[in-house]
TrEMBL record:
Superkingdom: Bacteria
The protein's name: Peptidase S9 prolyl oligopeptidase catalytic domain-containing protein
InterPro entries assigned: 6-blade_b-propeller_TolB-like (IPR011042), AB_hydrolase_fold (IPR029058), Peptidase_S9_cat (IPR001375), WD40 (IPR011659)
Limits of the Peptidase S9 prolyl oligopeptidase catalytic domain: 411-614
UniProt key word Protease: yes
Alphabetical UniProt keywords: Hydrolase, Protease, Serine protease
Pfam families in UniProt: PD40, Peptidase_S9
Amino acid sequence: MTAELIVDGRIPQTPALAPDGRTVCYVLTPASRSGAHLDTELWLVGDDGSRRLTEGTATESQPHWSPDGATLFFLSDRSDRGTPQLQRCTPTDGVVSTLTSWPAGIADHLPLADSTTAVLLAEDAVVRDPVVVGEDEPAARIRLLDLRSGHLSTPDVFAGRHVTEVRQRPDGGPLAVLTQARADQDCGPCTVHLHLFDPKTGAVGDLGPVEPDAHALTWWLAPDGWHLGYLALTPPLLQAGLAVFDLALSTGLRTNRTAGFSRCPVELQETDGAPLVLFAEGLRTTVARLDPTGPTTLVEHPGLLSGLSVSGAQLAVVAGTRYEGANVHIGPIGGPLRRVTDTRPELRDVTFGQQRPLSHRGADGLELDGLLVLPTGKRAAEGPFPTVVAPHGGPYGRYADNCQLFWYPSAQWLAAGGYAVFLPNPRGGQGHGHEFAACVAGRVGQEEWTDILTGVDRLVAEGIADPDRLGIAGWSHGGFLAEWAVGHTGRFRAALAGAGVADWGMLAATGENGRFESALGGSTGWSGIGPHPHDALSPVSYASRIRTPMLLLHGADDTNVPLGQSDYFHRALQHFGVEHEYVIYPGEGHSIRERGHQLDVLRRTRAWFDRWLG
């Protein structure tokens, strides 16, 4: 196991099945980038084997097949790095032609059933200086590309609203269109409307407002007529995960089809009949058909599934196992699925730490799950081991029972260094339904933290975790929990917080998802005269108690959790004389992408825990 092995890996993403269901195109994406841009590849897998379609010298994404399957459309910045344009490729000869030269680039595309038109989403090419907030912000608009003449037109529809998604009715009828008032990450998703648009006649219909962050439009025909489905945030709480909504166009009745479920929908996919839903269900993932009486489970996978694509009676999906990286699998709806790629053969020569599911109960008896990864080459009976607790991000994330090998402080990387790693799934996360996720609203760091501690206590009691050599490491919300931990207990000998949240009020004011963050923290700085509820939930409020050595890591250009969060915590630690290191990665956002920076994160992580846990 080497750091280079991790960052030089390649990951298959967004498989797209051809209309005949026999060929799949997917994007092969490197785990890291070496220059200013990410170089991806398009691959085809069919009856005649696997072949690379593009050379990997550009960022290429979003493959979509023409309705007849003869042509593949995708986005690429091969002509001007950083500015994607629409490409057309005939897979039989591999010839690629560039169809657009839009100055602002193309954000999304959809070939229509008439085979002569493609719908594009693209911003106006206008540079404003100065920028008047709310007036000069970019907005994606619908463009219609005539594939015969190359003519590009912009219908005057939706009154300047930002278009986020388009999906044509399967019979070649109108387009379902999602728009929001602004492209702003914070307030925009809370102003979503659903429309119908006929590109032939220009007719527009407004179906009214829908739930925040609506996406994954899906059509299906039922006995009462056409239905439109989509995923959206579960009302009224923005941080409580996704639900599947069903709009019957004949009556206007909108229904939450996943209300009360103990599993969480993460993807919605159109079929020839009832749609398919990808569910996070504890540590596993399932594919289910959304029948009128409820979901019918078709595929069960013990780990993580993603990128569901359906054509006719076939489906494609990205899946992995505990000790194998993600690969594309295809097969009939209902299974079995077969692996058709081998993107990380080098992992077959690697010895992994033993990974096993872990179940325990919270202090109030709530059933919880997670993963335990033992040090490489060790059995549980050989403990106790130095142990690192690694909370996931989100908080609406989860650990599935898949290969835990990533650029951030991941379990198999730490296991290779001699550590046991506890990967908890506390309440607030994905995989156990709406109520499980919603209970952290205004209570971050409360029950979710005691959920983690009860898991640690179990591992100590079983002789796996050494109580005198405990560490904690996390990124994003996991970074928040690491900072929270050291202000509430002295039992951890070392901590690592990557892009952690130090102050919820400041994050609500400066992060790109302010409403979401204020729901988690319970208030904002403008919620009257303080102290505010979020003060009691912010790690920086407890800095005077901290004695644990800390490593802070952050991307300089992070807009999700801005750098100011770690600046704030660093100054507090400095004020109270807490031993710590603070590392800033120039040019990086919320996730670290540059190869050298990823290597530094991995090596610095192990060195930090080696220093303090022995």
